[in-house]
Queue: 3 jobs
Job 1
Amino acid sequence: MEFVGSHILSVDQFDRKGIEHIFAIADSMQPYADRIRITRILQGAILSNMFFEPSTRTRVSFGCAFNLLGGEVRETSEIKASSLTKGESLYDSARVLSGYSDIIVMRHPESGSVAEFASASRVPVINAGDGPNEHPSQALLDLYTIKKELNEKSRSVDGLRIAMVGDLKYGRAVHSLLKLLGLFKDITIHLVSPPDLKTPDDIVQQLKQLGHAVHATDSMEEGIHHVDIVYTTRTQEERFPSQTEADRYKGLFRLNQAIYTEFCEPNTVIMHPLPRDSRSQAQELDDDLNTNPNLAIFRQTDNGVLIRMALFSLVLDITDQIHSHASPVTWFTARRTPNY
Amino acid sequence: MEFVGSHILSVDQFDRKGIEHIFAIADSMQPYADRIRITRILQGAILSNMFFEPSTRTRVSFGCAFNLLGGEVRETSEIKASSLTKGESLYDSARVLSGYSDIIVMRHPESGSVAEFASASRVPVINAGDGPNEHPSQALLDLYTIKKELNEKSRSVDGLRIAMVGDLKYGRAVHSLLKLLGLFKDITIHLVSPPDLKTPDDIVQQLKQLGHAVHATDSMEEGIHHVDIVYTTRTQEERFPSQTEADRYKGLFRLNQAIYTEFCEPNTVIMHPLPRDSRSQAQELDDDLNTNPNLAIFRQTDNGVLIRMALFSLVLDITDQIHSHASPVTWFTARRTPNY
Amino acid sequence: MEFVGSHILSVDQFDRKGIEHIFAIADSMQPYADRIRITRILQGAILSNMFFEPSTRTRVSFGCAFNLLGGEVRETSEIKASSLTKGESLYDSARVLSGYSDIIVMRHPESGSVAEFASASRVPVINAGDGPNEHPSQALLDLYTIKKELNEKSRSVDGLRIAMVGDLKYGRAVHSLLKLLGLFKDITIHLVSPPDLKTPDDIVQQLKQLGHAVHATDSMEEGIHHVDIVYTTRTQEERFPSQTEADRYKGLFRLNQAIYTEFCEPNTVIMHPLPRDSRSQAQELDDDLNTNPNLAIFRQTDNGVLIRMALFSLVLDITDQIHSHASPVTWFTARRTPNY
């Protein structure tokens, strides 16, 4: 696929070769994210970081990625602060904002909104989440994390065994990751969810047609038994058809250290798209896993910066120039201390 | 007029020579806005971009203009986020904030607030809109757009024929633009509005005293017949004295392609201060004009960046230095592609 | 004390030698804050300026301080815009955000929250206010202002006579400043407050044990009689046990020019942590003091930038490198005009 000047809107845009190219560029960003070197290649370039729905993590991640390449960031972080509330169309917003900046990152609560915006934009647009629909950089950082975690064990994504746990019906992160995994070979997927929150059938059928092994279950213990990765998600009570149904599954999809020790193979990697709900009534990843070295959830967000730097670099066609605009970091950086 | 170190608060500050100077500097900013070159002349300078009323477009436009000159931007975008809500006076806010930055851009819902703030500020202040009162950079970008559109046809602002359409009673953009037009020669102005939303009489009288031709009408078809520019504005229903009155004029001031074709001279330029209300019940510029090459509304917002760069450059006295701090752009820029 | 890589969470961290080191570095920042020179030493570094409670002044002050050192700033300014509202723990927020930036400044409404966040952060954290608890850079800028104001009179902090006026029970600024003053010698402190809003006893006892003279009174006139500094604070009516009590003290702790002239020694310096409540019903510093040259409240906020630059420089270990990355300022700067 061609990246230069392209919009990044959906995981459907990517083929395996394109993904591997993104990952190779992401790897080359590590010295900048680690503050071993800085680069000023995008000095003078402007990102419009348009968040019409709150998301501190994703917004700051994109902003930092652009800053780390030397560019400037202009932002909006609330729909109320926008002329969209005065009846302005996405078409008009796109025509106007694309006159200001070199590239636009956009999050918006409505499905399809970012693609509509992109079709009117005069500069490349990266979808940072359009409601329940797509959030391609999240899927890429998830897959990139899987690749890196497996590489540590001298494995590759081909042959991966993964369990997806929780709300598999509504979670866009799960759907997008499953689509990307479909591009690889011999994936074994355990879909662990309450019956009412099962993975949509078209996604399952597509994976099977591509020759992957897909197993659905409502038993977490069974699903996480023989896998390399457990990918858990939030399960919101209001997604269930009734409170009775919600109560029935309460706590059954919550992973903690005891369950991990009893049911998982040693060194099974734990992932989550975040934010993790740490309130006592939540049903996902227990805090007692925080000291488990296989908890990869913060390596995921670290990898997000690398993936976003890679996307900016590819779309703005600077991958060959980054390193010639580099210089060493001279300030204290915690990243070189043992406890980082 | 003297720009260096001055506040930019009102269109009343400008004479024709000053305006032409601003426009000449704005012209020289084009290579930077087009990403042919970057300049770092304001590296180390800080703009405080203080928006105590939401306006994504204007806020981002000012911020990008400052970034394009190499400066940094600190922002506020909501009155709730401000100590103004804790009873702090504009005097105190101005004394404090002017200790942080090199220049301040301020929007505030109350008429006169920005001038009051500026009188206590220790650094130059640019008014980005103080309620119904003034928004001088909008008036300048409107006039600059008129100049450029006419120059394309080997014409100048002198001798312009323009129709202003919609709510001419409350629209500050219209009032300010009319004041600036008054500084030029032989302007013919058609004021098209419902009787209850007519242009204030003092503005009309001033234009007549300056020798311009002013015609008022409530018929859009009549007003837009023989003009170079149609400048339309939002007409908010709540501005009418009664719903009966609002209903009576519903749709009568809405320009669309059919009306344009039937009543306007060929190549009549269409302008609007934006945001345009694209909801079906709105009464201004129809979306079917989007493919009309004479729709200049996005050239207006593009020009806004040039005007704001010019104002920053003049106030901070860097117009002679910009080009010696320039270097070529090496990243992909959509601005050099045919579809931009 | 060791600054490099440390969190700055509480005034309890500082000893006198450490404070004097911070102040010496702050002094050396003056040419940059005055726009005589710029430095680019932190070019490529990123501050995450996380304000989970509104505070335009403090947020912009920290942001400008980082920009003046050449770094970039990513921000959040509202708790609603945060995944904290989705049940994310401070632990998770800290792990994630510290993967993005080089240093974090954080304000949060809950006491102890910033320390909890810092304990999970992988990069240094500066507390910019955790509810009623701590705001160490405010205490430092207050003390730094006292030092500079006294130095103007060839005096030092040792031997200082100061009156603290207003709500001394809840004001964190007062408590922190008193703790820092305790590190110096022969301080005479007049604590002026309504009986229900007295300074907590442990703070008073500690000062006495350190050999300082502490006098408590509910008469402002008596307290401000023989001092070098009057430090006033907001007194919020809702802090009183009853409206009767609030009414009883209404206006009794409001300093104005007449009271100043009658009761204060010549050139007594007036300070306030800001924001000052300028509404007519407020009970603190009258606007008629604005032309009094001894009103130091805006010198305090100016000094805040120097203190924050010093803290960033010390924590990021760049104090020796700043000046070798410096160059002259070439734009107009109001800071060199007589009226600044």
Job 2
Amino acid sequence: MIERLAVIGVGLIGGSLARALRREGVVGEVVGCGRALANLEQAVELGVIDRFTQRPDEAVAGADMVFVAVPLGAMRGVFSAISDRLDPGAVVTDGGSVKGSVVADAMAAFKGVPPSLVPGHPIAGTECSGVEASFAELYENRRVILTPLPETDPDALSRVTAMWETCGAEVTCMSVAHHDEVLAATSHLPHMLAFGLVDSLARMRENDAIFRYAAGGFRDFTRIASSNPVMWRDICLANREALSAMLARFGVEMTDLAESIRRADGEHLLEIFERAKSARDRYVDSAR
Amino acid sequence: MIERLAVIGVGLIGGSLARALRREGVVGEVVGCGRALANLEQAVELGVIDRFTQRPDEAVAGADMVFVAVPLGAMRGVFSAISDRLDPGAVVTDGGSVKGSVVADAMAAFKGVPPSLVPGHPIAGTECSGVEASFAELYENRRVILTPLPETDPDALSRVTAMWETCGAEVTCMSVAHHDEVLAATSHLPHMLAFGLVDSLARMRENDAIFRYAAGGFRDFTRIASSNPVMWRDICLANREALSAMLARFGVEMTDLAESIRRADGEHLLEIFERAKSARDRYVDSAR
Ligand SMILES: NC(=O)c1ccc[n+]([C@@H]2O[C@H](COP(=O)([O-])OP(=O)(O)OC[C@H]3O[C@@H](n4cnc5c(N)ncnc54)[C@H](OP(=O)(O)O)[C@@H]3O)[C@@H](O)[C@H]2O)c1
Ligand SMILES: NC(=O)c1ccc[n+]([C@@H]2O[C@H](COP(=O)([O-])OP(=O)(O)OC[C@H]3O[C@@H](n4cnc5c(N)ncnc54)[C@H](OP(=O)(O)O)[C@@H]3O)[C@@H](O)[C@H]2O)c1
């Protein structure tokens, strides 16, 4: 049971956590925090939070669980604002898409690793933002990755694990560096390809015709290019190293593919496409 | 009304056309043609075709409409087999994803452009193949591009147009070269990115973990990597020039993006992502 949950950043990720915990009846009071009044007022109307403040330090007063779900670029400021205002015994966790930067931000703000900090990342989301996009089912049957540090209090870890399990998620732990590499490959790189593809088509002379003849596959393929640009700028900056490495690896793959097309090497193309198809089919089967 | 329709290649595309025309009651007899007996027998069982032969020249005997829906690499062989066996007055059209190569294949087989040939391409499909994947609704509210040549008989063009409209499709005409460029951008390039991405992840050391933590967006983004590898090898070879140009354009875009990440140029990244998001959102709105 969480007595008082503080949600800093009441958007898709923060709002959905509050909704899920409320639906399960495992939270007493939910205090929201953000900058725009309209979003916070809507959060109260929707029953996602009980009350709000625009000051993170006020939001965490008396909270036994603090969930920070602001864009990565705002993490350090939030941590600095709350670092000496937390209740003893309060657990702090977050939903940021990159973990190395969040840990660095926390260390800078808290002057060291706070044992009550459990860095986390729910592998769930949509391309929509704000509290109105949030829904209680977002985390059902999804994975949440926690990246506890050597200093992390085991009790804090188990409280955060239990919180996510209550939302229907499956919790896995891994190191910060491994998380950032895996996510660079499976999420950050695909987003770069989708943004890059749509942008390069949008910049073509006859881009109206181009988009007019795009088929169904194009809609699915580019869905993630409708994601929040600020959030993605922050992710790129926060996960620069791992993402740059993945982009370079992908660049080598595409150079090889382009070369095979230029020299009409059908055999090599077939090999690439078959390997990709069987990996994708295996992935979908195992995700069932 | 079509008295006798010959479908050479009774797979997703050919089977779906036959189903749609039958449902509308605008076709007398449907003769199927392919290599594997099992697929053809299944096509009869499913009621997609009335009878079959494994010889294209036999299939077109007495047909007033011939639809060629084999992989691009098999087009030339089919055209050669039927070139002097067509009924006078028969119209020939196809569903190949690249039009330049189909026209070249037809010219080689027919020794010139046959006036009865109407090259075409339905902008509809799924990642599945074979007659069992076919369905009558595939072409509803989808576009079909026809690329008539100066030599094309206007009556043949209008018969093919009417046939597709009966299936619920909207028909547009454009030049062969324009078709191949537009499709390189909206379909062939995205497929290369999806195949390339999945292949480069599949080749990573810890690829099990990689795929395990892929989220919902990944499934949609990579759906097209489950497409038929032979069909895509053929498309790459058939549309080499336009696709190479698009790959080069995309390469420049990605180099710029990777450079911006490396030098932490958040402003430029935001500009790219915002332009892409607004183009993608506009595309989805206009597709509604
Ligand atoms: N969307 C996804 O698919 C996804 C998935 C997993 C993890 N994440 C991570 O989850 C976090 C939140 O993403 P989201 O999708 O929920 O975004 P969102 O819907 O835009 O929500 C973010 C919320 O944070 C608030 N906020 C922004 N700056 C703030 C600040 N300085 N102080 C307090 N509140 C602030 C925003 O409200 P105001 O603008 O009114 O302040 C907004 O309501 C990000 O770190 C992201 O990387 C996202
Ligand atoms: N799938 C799409 O999304 C899509 C969309 C638009 C256009 N197209 C185009 O449509 C055409 C067919 O694609 P599809 O998706 O329908 O593929 P499919 O489901 O694999 O069907 C192709 C059919 O052609 C037959 N075939 C192959 N080689 C042949 C030959 N030499 N002689 C006679 N039949 C032969 C195959 O049967 P056997 O192996 O038994 O011969 C198979 O039933 C391709 O040119 C493709 O570029 C596809």
Job 3
Amino acid sequence: MVGRALAGRLSGLGHDVVIGTRDVQQTLTRTEPDSMGTPPYSGWQKDNATVRLATFPDAGTHGELVINATSGVNAMAALEATGSENLAGKVLVDLALPLDFSGGMPPRLTIANTDSLGEQVQRAFPDALVVKTLNTMFKDIMVDPARLPGHHNIFIAGNDTGAKETVTTLLTEFGWQQETIIDLGSIQSARATEMYMQMYFNLVGVLDTFEFNIAIVRA
Amino acid sequence: MVGRALAGRLSGLGHDVVIGTRDVQQTLTRTEPDSMGTPPYSGWQKDNATVRLATFPDAGTHGELVINATSGVNAMAALEATGSENLAGKVLVDLALPLDFSGGMPPRLTIANTDSLGEQVQRAFPDALVVKTLNTMFKDIMVDPARLPGHHNIFIAGNDTGAKETVTTLLTEFGWQQETIIDLGSIQSARATEMYMQMYFNLVGVLDTFEFNIAIVRA
């Protein structure tokens, strides 16, 4: 659902978007919602005909910029299938979260504190320019921050300054004001935004909505 | 420093405050700042003469409500010295953080994800009514939220509804508006606020100030 929200928005902005999957035919012929309740892809495809579905390696070859919007548990396998040669030298936006829902809500993290999924992705694909971002809010807010009133913030973390500039430009296309984008530093700072997920999912339960974000309030 | 900020504020509000320490004479006779740069207690005592210094068990006997403002690594020992019999049936406000600064800034947590210091304190003192709060911001903002403009939030977590009501009243005395106090649920939710510390200390570095807090922005 997150990938579709991003793909639809990027396509609407005029970008040429390809979504990667393991098995194109299988993805297109599914008629039931998946285990998370995501409606079948074919229906979404009809409304988003400019977005092409392709195998992971084909999507990797296509992209100038690659977005990892898989579930955290499948992230590494999806990126391996995309191919390190297709990720080398490219900006890799990572918004996957290493969540374990097996104990119910709020989920636990499978990686925390001394490592992060963002760092693991960067280590596994050392030639990719990994930028962790977008992973601290609901999909609809990621691509349309004006859904919420006033000022609220988004974070970026990564080792490459140029890659972070590219991602900042992309975020401003989504509607994020430059001054609301906070650069937390190197990819190690992915720990901060991934660990914030405990607070995020706790708030989802308490507020009974996904329609919120945090704002940093300064003196 | 956090304990002093709370003690000074509570005393100013008319509460009868005792600070617990291991060795009263040693605390009073120190003339050098400690390893964190905290100035010696004696100077602060002169400006806050209404706050009495006592041994941990004497402080425990005194208090109707006990605040654990120790460093996370010393929290359990300080509470054991205070005495489980002195904590039984009382509201125990826990704002200690299980931080490990040995790897530099930002610190790591020594407990995270599958447990929290708040839960450990509640398990170690099952008859205490533990409420985790105040642990997501700088000391000066804890006791005077109006230092920051507009709306920003504070969190409470604990198993006992009455204890959370008592703590909410205390927070409103500090200046927290009722609607800015978010009850995250049981003491297990201490995980959320303790894990937020990774983001907090990352932001301290990036913003180069402790003078900030987060606000939840809703649709």
